Amino acid sequence: MKILFVKKAFTIIEVLIAIFILEVGILGVSSFFASGFKIIKNARTETIATNLGSGLLDETLANSFDNIPVGTVARQKYSPNLGDPFYNYDKQIDTTYIDEYLNNSVTPTPMKKIVVTIYWTIGNQSKTFQIATIKASH
User: Fold this and answer.
1) Distance of alpha carbon 39 from alpha carbon 37, whole angstroms
2) Cα–Cα distance list, 82 to 10, 21, 61, 99, 112 (Å)
3) N or C of the chain: less Cβ packing under 10 Å?
């Protein structure tokens, strides 16, 4: 009785196909990470802008009603220091009188609308974050 042994091996074509499939999978995962890092960077800058705007609004609201000037404060750097992490952000505060229907009023009323706008740039895109509130005199 004779036993035949059949040797099974991968052909070069099968190995190349397996390497190609593995490469496609690795490239897909790596591109996912690249776009994920971009999303994280955008989220981080938006979070910083949100916190800067909220802090600036809180500082403004800490003043008494009469000490909050009506008008627009010109857009300026949040920090003038080049090494500061907030140097790339600009701020603007716009305060107006509003009537009981929340419409802007040219005459003084007992309510002021305060709008804080934060500006920054990511790549070639300009971004803004705006937060607003109302302060009433007592």
Assistant:
1) 5
2) 61, 48, 28, 41, 34
3) N
Task: Tally Cβ neighbours within 10 Å of residue 78.
Answer: 21
> What stretches of the chain show up as alpha helix (H) in DSSP?
12-61
Quick one: which H or E segment has residue 116? strand 111-122
> Could you write out the DSSP letters of every residue in 71-97?
EEEEEEES---TTSTTTT-EEEEEEEE
For residue 22, what are the contacts with CB-CB under 8 A and spacing of at least 6? none
What is the gyration radius of the CA atoms in the chain, in angstroms?
A: 30
pLDDT of residue 64: 95
Question: Binning pLDDT at 50, 70 and 90, where does residue 1 land?
Answer: low
Nearest C-alpha neighbor of 57 from the set 132, 111, 120: 132
